[in-house]
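Hi R.,

Here are the chain sequences for the assembly we discussed:
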Amino acid sequence: MKLKQGSFLWYLYLDKLYCLLSVRNVKALVEYFHLLDVHRKKTLNDVLFYHFLHHVTDLTRNQITVVFNMLDWNAVGEIGFDQFYMLVCILLAQEQNHLEEQFIFRHSRPVFELLDLDGELKIGPDNLHMYNFLFNIKKQQLRDLYHNFDITGDRLLNYKEFKLFTIFSMDKYQESQKAEKEKKKEKALLKKKLSQVNQSQRESLLGIKPFESISNYNC
Amino acid sequence: MGRSRRDPAPPPSWSVNPLPHPPRPEACGNWVRWGRSMEGKPLKASAKSSSHHGSGGSSLQDIRNMWTTATLSQPKLNVQLPTVREDSELEEVSVSAKTLWLDEKAGHDAEGGWEASDGGEDKDRFKPEEPEELELGGDSSQGSRLEEDDSKTDNEKPSSVSSLDISRHTPHRAYWVEQQSRLPLPLTELMENEALEILTEALRSYQSEIGRGHTLTKQLQRYIEGLKRRRNRRLQVLAI
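And here is the predicted structure of the full complex:
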């Protein structure tokens, strides 16, 4: 899922630690929502919601319908600002340097409630797979999730198990970030060394040439 | 923050950079009081200033009072004061007020009414991007400038000031104070343009699904026309 470059949402950003919008961003978002609220009901109906998402993202019609059904948790056929804000945070978490793990970790309860479509306080693998495009949970991760964290063994995740999963994936993500940083440092060091070696070679070459010319002159 | 890839269209600084320092409590309090007062009744000049905020609070109240009296004294200005509004439809009034303010400014510039300390700066600073710069870094400077100017006005001139002096100083300051509560113009433009595109597509769906004669379709059509009119008016104002 990608945000359209140059769109209004593209200019917003999430706080990296808490994965929320700043007050200024929220103020701008409120104005934006107000502009789209054509019928002055402080909500967006399914048509407006579809065209909004279709315009600012590359989601398909089915995916947009899935998102709408997920957010319409009151089953009124309309999306209010709370749900809209949630959606924007999810979109931005994916867009900006892949903050999905951080987002799910920080907001595990609301995400769990979003994924728990039936209201049974448990999530099945189908639920997670359905929203894979939003939260970017890969197949291998899903398998690990149910293999390692289904403590009760009912092939469903309750909230505690889900929370454990978010903590684990957050730790893994931080480790991978550290490993990437170390790799980058090593590369930078290698480059420096190489450049130093090249420089010393050049200097040594330059040092040899005048010496040779003098010795030739003497001969 | 990995924004180096977004070079072609740098985001407005307003949305990117949060306030580096928390605003002064008195500035916040004044902003909130000013916003609330502008929504409701016009203020009357108060002889006694509140001791809690010192000269800053009373000077702002005097400014507000002079702002209201300035508009009343000017026969051509029949528009209500631009207030902090949430309803986007009422933005038209503020746009017309801005145009009238611009005309007034142009007139005063011709007369040489603006003093050098304010006039030159005004011309340079009247840009859509300016409010956020003032907001980010200029709270203290603006506040101190306000206090300085107001102390001068208080000391040098009596309470009954001439209408020319009122129109010289107060609309400018009140305008900028009000601007702090508004979104920057480039962001508003971007939002409105995008909303127009989305709603135009939605209108097509409405027309095909529920018909052109349906109430909702007509409502959406009127709304889109209103948005377009507002956008055109703003473009005309900017062109001036």
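Chain B has ten helices and no strands. Confidence is low (pLDDT under 50) at residues 1-58, 60-154 of chain B.

Let me know if anything looks off.

Best,
T.
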